[in-house]
User: What shape does this take?
Amino acid sequence: MGYLSSLSITFDEPVNYFVDVLSYHYLLHTDQYTHEQALRILNGDTSKLIEPINTLVDKLLQSSPDPHVIFFFDNGSCIQNKVVYPMYKANRQKSQLQTTVQRYTFCMLKEHFANANNVTVLDTSDFESDIVPYMCHVEDWFDCKHVLNIIISRDKDFLQMLEYNNWLQHTGSALYDKDTALAYVNKRYKKGLSAGYLPVLLAIAGDNSDNIPGVPRYGVTRAYKYIVEYGLPQKLTYGSIKGPLSVHEPIIIRNYRLISFEEQYKRCKKMKGGIL
Assistant: This one.
């Protein structure tokens, strides 16, 4: 990767460690919440991660002479997916408090980085912000097609971005690329399927975290084997699912449309002529 002249660092919300850490401190500093209440809102004790994340961020920033840091968030409406499946993420709706905390947090982050780096804070409002990296790549925002891009997030959906050779994802504990991406969701992964198969894998197995039901009795391991055995393509369309699972094609195609950033991007463009 040494030929790349710059670096774009993209922080996801609300699950990335760094945002959780600052959100935690914001809650405490408002003097409105106790330690226990703050942890309950953030679903866990993130204070112990402060040092590792600070170290990681410093290392990334020092690796490039001109890094660009991008933070993105939304209001939880996720309209581009709820038009396909109204129950999408029905199991974890954001509270007004969480949304407020995130907005304040991003303001803090922007101020923190503003003096030393190029910083962009993107609010996609009603559209789910997960497609921001894909937008950056397709529309070549911030010269993303020509620099090294690192997504900092534990969200497995971003793994599909690693199909592009200049994209990496750091989960806080490990760095993944195109060839190792699926190991993050499938511990029995063997090299063979690249990151671009992530939407197909989850379309079959489903994704409980987003309330997306998959094919009964198919987890990621069995789905992985099926993709290899029947040679499913990276981009699913009606008629492209061969073998026994063809009877479940409506569910699989629906799920693929929910998970694939390319499919989401098309809907966003059609719905409002754009996103931001």
Notes: The chain has a mean pLDDT of 76. The longest helix spans residues 96-114. The two ends are 31 Å apart (CA to CA).
